[in-house]
Write a structure and sequence with these properties.
Strand order of the largest sheet of chain A: 1-2
Helix content of chain B: over 70%
Number of domains of chain B: 1
Oligomer: heterodimer
Structural class of chain A: mainly alpha
Order of helices and strands of chain A: HHEEHHHH
Largest sheet of chain B: 2 strands, antiparallel
Structural class of chain B: mainly alpha
Largest sheet of chain A: 2 strands, antiparallel
Radius of gyration of chain B: 23 Å
Strand content of chain B: under 5%
Distance between the termini of chain A: 55 Å
Order of helices and strands of chain B: HHHHHHHEEHHHHHHHHHHHH
Strand order of the largest sheet of chain B: 1-2
Number of domains of chain A: 2
Largest interface: A-B, 61 and 59 residues
């Protein structure tokens, strides 16, 4: 039962949000709550921080009561892994952008996504990656004068 | 008279060649966005906002609004041909639309969807034209306490309607309030929640949150769901896209029902077009002489939700344009676009920027006509967009998201924030937390805090000011009632269960 509680998504989300609410409350109490000319910077965060703590605890307690009656829904773990893998690749491509620039990091991201996340062949992956990267470069900086993040190579 | 004069002035603006072009572009993009599952109008508008910054505000809002209502037209195509809703508001259209297509009436189904969208869309714009001026005039008497109360009511309604769990919706909204607090407090110059990052002193740009929570999160959600579906063929030639007389006759009450229901539900903040389309469908079935035909390909079962989700867009624009109160994620983005152009959405918009207000309203009449003319003969062409492979579409959306954020913030740090908000949006969707309340909390939070603090400055810190003014008190009482309603319902269900178990 304890394992089931610890793995329940509502309980986890409620716990994280309660911790965030406590952090907001602690921060808010460090700032002025009410001054001579009205509420200070701590006034509004104090109240929504308190609301976050109360509601997230409510979410957790409500879920604990329901856990006895309801069985947890099935999670599509392969799908979640695919989505999180895509996000990790996207985040990595953003992280290397200051060095490689948008065009190269986006081409690499597209290649990896098409090849491994979507299971396409090498040629399709390469063609899509190059085509999209060149397309973006032609459309945004050249045609629309919208800047793209540049890397050490200057593009 | 004032309305007719305003409308004539608006048509003078909307009929200018450039504005006609922006309207057409918005409608075409909207139709394509609506057709493609995994790409909603909120994400598309958020991604295109940075590009529209250099445009004239009137042309810009005409184009962005065209995407908004154009997506409602396009959404039905995917529902009918693939049994997959192009966007959330087209879920109800799958029920009878796909059944009609399977029975060989795909052309008629697409025709009914286009006609219902046109009739209800135009009906909605007529109502928007008529009700917006008096509401804006009434709201001119509002001061800070009334604004605080109005925003509280708006957020309470969003919490009530968004998603299955009001607690999760409220938490998402509060998270939005937190994100909007990040940065320098303009009253006291105190840095709040910046984690020592100078890049956060100016706060987080709305577009980073919107693009992350809608566009990036939608890509991740679609990558997880990865489904292969069989596209039904689209009949070519306009004659094959027109419904027969019996089908049109069956739809006549559905058009009226959907138009009225859609507009009224659209006005309510947070209700959203998926709710309006299901309510219209339920009404149609409830009052039908042949309810058994619903789900088997009844034309009226398609016309009612399609009419509702189109009338809903005009309804949703009423509080946004007249009160500065967006009712959903897409209208929140449109509102932010107006703010970024230096305009003030709300009761003063009609007076300060009549070209934008009346130009937009008039363009919606033209846009609805354009969409009808585009959708009937060109639907087979638009349907080809469904053949764009996911492995091309999704990297493209990620790329446009990066370009959009970098175009505004000019910093890789903010592109990193985009990735963070994308993950947050995906996690929220998986855990059942709706994204729209977060966006609305973010958009309205700043104004809400300012209105509250100004109210308390006016009263010397006395909260009584919020209940001593009749309009503010009435709105706050309504907000409290809205928040209590789910609790009363829950208590009632618990009481009935107890009675049933005991005897």
């Amino acid at each position: 039962m304890i394992q089931r509680v610890a793995r329940d998504s509502d309980v986890l989300a409620g716990g994280v949000l309660a911790a965030l609410g406590v952090y907001i409350l602690v921060q808010a109490t460090r700032w002025e709550y009410m001054g001579f000319d009205g509420p200070g910077p701590g006034f509004f965060p104090f109240w929504y921080g308190l609301a976050i703590v109360i509601l997230s605890l409510w979410l957790v307690v409500g879920r604990l009561f329901r856990l006895r009656r309801e069985s947890p829904g099935a999670v599509d773990w392969p799908g979640v892994r695919r989505a999180l893998g895509t996000w990790a690749l996207f985040a990595l491509s953003v992280a290397v952008m200051p060095w490689l620039g948008f065009v190269l990091s986006f081409a690499l991201l597209t290649f990896v996504l098409v090849r491994w996340q979507f299971g396409q062949g090498l040629k399709t992956a390469a063609f899509t990656a190059v085509g999209l990267a060149v397309g973006f470069y032609v459309l945004f900086p050249l045609a629309l004068d919208v800047p793209l993040p540049a890397g050490r190579l200057g593009f | 008279m004032e309305v007719l004069a305003g409308l004539a002035y608006g048509f003078g603006i909307a009929l200018q060649p450039m504005n006609l072009l922006w309207c057409l572009l918005g409608c075409v993009l909207g139709t394509l966005v609506g057709i493609m599952p995994g790409l909603g109008p909120a994400a598309a508008i958020a991604m295109l906002m940075p590009i529209s910054f250099n445009m004239d505000p009137t042309g810009g809002i005409i184009m962005l609004a065209g995407i908004y209502y154009g997506a409602k037209y396009g959404g039905s195509t995917t529902s009918i041909l693939l049994n997959i809703p192009g966007e959330a508001s087209s879920v109800a259209s799958c029920i009878d639309g796909y059944q009609m297509a399977k029975r060989g009436r795909a052309g008629a189904a697409l025709g009914i969807a286009a006609i219902a969208s046109f009739v209800a869309g135009t009906f909605g714009v007529v109502l928007l034209t008529l009700v917006a001026p008096p509401i804006a005039r009434f709201a001119l008497s509002f001061s800070s306490p009334e604004y605080f109360a109005l925003l509280s009511l708006g957020l309470a309604l969003v919490v009530l309607f968004a998603g299955e769990s009001p607690i999760k919706a409220a938490l998402a909204m509060l998270l939005g309030l937190w994100f909007t607090s990040i940065g320098i407090d303009l009253f006291s110059a105190q840095a709040r929640f910046t984690f020592g990052q100078t890049a956060l002193l100016n706060g987080i740009d709305f577009m980073i949150v919107a693009i992350g929570v809608f566009a990036v999160a939608e890509v991740l959600g679609s990558v997880q769901a990865r489904t292969d579906a069989q596209l039904l063929s689209v009949p070519r030639g306009i004659r094959n896209l027109l419904p027969n007389w019996e089908e049109l006759k069956a739809c006549r009450f559905a058009l009226v029902n959907g138009s009225i229901t859609g507009f009224l539900v659209g006005v309510l903040p947070g209700a959203g077009s998926s709710i309006s389309s299901f309510i219209a469908y339920a009404f149609e079935k409830l009052f039908s002489k042949h309810p058994e035909r619903f789900g088997q390909g009844a034309p009226e079962g398609l016309a009612a939700p399609e009419a509702a989700n189109n009338a809903d867009t005009s309804g949703a624009l009423v509080p946004m344009l007249t009160l500065g109160l967006p009712g959903g994620g897409t209208t929140a983005i449109l509102l932010s676009a107006l703010v970024l152009w230096g305009l003030k959405p709300g009761p003063m918009l009609m007076q300060d920027s009549p070209n934008v207000f009346w130009g937009l309203v008039a363009s919606m009449y033209i846009g609805n006509l354009m969409l009808l003319l585009l959708n009937l003969p060109l639907v087979p062409l638009f349907a080809q967009a469904l053949r764009i492979p996911a492995y091309v579409l999704f990297p493209m959306i990620l790329g446009i998201s990066v370009v959009g954020v970098f175009g505004v913030a000019q910093s890789i740090f903010h592109v990193g924030l985009l990735a963070g908000f994308g993950l947050l949006g995906y996690a929220m969707a998986r855990l059942g937390f709706p994204g729209a309340p977060l966006i609305l909390g973010f958009v309205l939070g700043d104004g809400m805090e300012r209105a509250l603090r100004q109210s308390l400055q006016m009263s010397g810190g006395d909260l009584g000011i919020l209940v001593s003014r009749p309009i503010a008190a009435g709105l706050l009482v309504a907000a409290v009632l809205v928040l209590i309603m789910p609790l009363v319902g829950r208590f009632n269900r618990w009481r009935l269960r107890g009675i049933a178990e005991n005897g």
